[in-house]
Design brief:
- The structure is a single chain.
- 19% of the residues are buried.
- This protein folds into two domains: 89 residues, no CATH class; 85 residues, no CATH class.
- The longest helix has 27 residues.
- The chain is built from seven helices and six strands; from the N terminus they run H-E-E-H-E-E-H-H-H-H-H-E-E.
- By secondary structure, it is α+β, with helices and mostly antiparallel strands.
- Helix 4 runs antiparallel to helix 5, helix 5 packs parallel to helix 7 and helix 6 runs antiparallel to helix 7.
- A hairpin with a 6-residue loop joins strand 3 and strand 4.
- Strands 1-2-3-4 form a four-stranded antiparallel beta sheet. The protein has a two-stranded antiparallel sheet with strand order 5-6.
- It starts with a helix and ends in a 17-residue tail after the last strand.
C-alpha cells in the first residue's frame, strides 16, 4: 500500500518520523485564541534536528535551558512549536493510538450489541434476549437493557433461568431482581420462601417442597 495524503500530513518535515497525537492543553502558548481541537500533532522524536537544535537556540538567544518540539494543527495544518523543559515533558499526554483504536472498536461492538438486542426485542425473542443477559462476557450496559426488556416481555420459562443464574455484578443483579418481580406480578407467581421454587402467589402449600405458606395478597 502507498502512502496516503493523511500519512504525509502527519510526518515531521524535519526528521520524517510520524507525528504523535497529543492531548491539547487548556491553555495556549501564543495567540490565546484556543486550540479548538482535542489533540495536536507533535513530533516526539528526541533525535529530530528541529528539537535538538532548539535547545542550543534557546540557550544562545535567551539563556534558557529549554527547547521546543515541532507541532501541527490537525484541521488547519498550521505548524508551530511547543516549548518543553525536558525530554519527558508532555509525553504523558501522548494519545496511545493502539488504545484509541481499541476503544473505538469497543464502542462499535457495543453499538452492534445494542442493535442486536433491539432486534430481538422487536421480534419478542425472549430466549435470545435471555442469552445476552446471561453472557458474563457481554457489555454490562447491554445486559442491563436485556434485563429490562425481559421484565417487559419475559415469561415463567425465562424467569427460572434468570433467578438460577449467578450474577457477580451487583448492579446487574439488582436489575434482574426488578425484572423478575415484574414477571412474577404479570403471572401471579412468587418464589416459595422455603425452597425458592416458583409457585402461584395464592398457593397455600408449595407443590415442590410441601411446606405450608402464608396466604399472599
Amino acid at each position: 500500500m502507498g502512502t496516503t495524503m493523511e500519512d504525509k500530513k502527519t510526518i515531521c518535515p524535519h526528521c520524517n518520523k510520524k507525528l504523535s497525537k497529543w492531548a491539547a492543553p487548556n491553555f495556549n502558548f501564543s495567540d490565546g485564541l484556543g486550540w479548538c481541537t482535542p489533540f495536536l500533532y507533535v513530533c516526539f522524536n528526541d533525535e529530530c534536528t528541529f528539537y535538538k537544535n532548539s535547545w542550543k537556540h534557546m540557550y544562545e538567544m535567551y539563556g534558557q535551558e529549554m527547547g521546543y518540539r515541532f507541532m501541527m494543527h490537525p484541521d488547519s495544518g498550521e505548524t508551530s512549536s511547543v516549548p518543553v523543559g525536558g525530554k519527558n515533558v508532555m509525553k504523558g499526554d501522548i494519545i496511545d493510538e493502539v488504545r484509541e483504536a481499541e476503544e473505538e472498536a469497543e464502542i462499535e461492538a457495543r453499538k452492534r450489541a445494542f442493535q442486536t438486542l433491539t432486534d430481538y426485542y422487536i421480534r419478542k425473542d425472549t430466549d435470545a434476549i435471555l442469552a445476552m443477559l446471561l453472557d458474563d462476557n457481554g457489555f454490562g450496559s447491554v445486559r442491563l437493557k436485556a434485563a429490562e426488556h425481559l421484565g417487559e416481555t419475559g415469561n415463567i420459562n425465562v424467569l427460572e433461568k434468570m433467578v438460577n443464574h449467578r450474577f457477580v455484578n451487583e448492579v446487574i443483579k439488582k436489575k434482574v431482581d426488578e425484572a423478575a418481580e415484574k414477571i412474577h406480578k404479570k403471572n401471579f407467581t412468587m418464589e416459595c420462601p422455603h425452597c425458592a421454587e416458583i409457585i402461584k402467589r395464592r398457593a397455600k402449600i408449595c407443590k415442590h417442597c410441601g411446606r405450608e405458606l402464608e396466604q399472599s395478597v
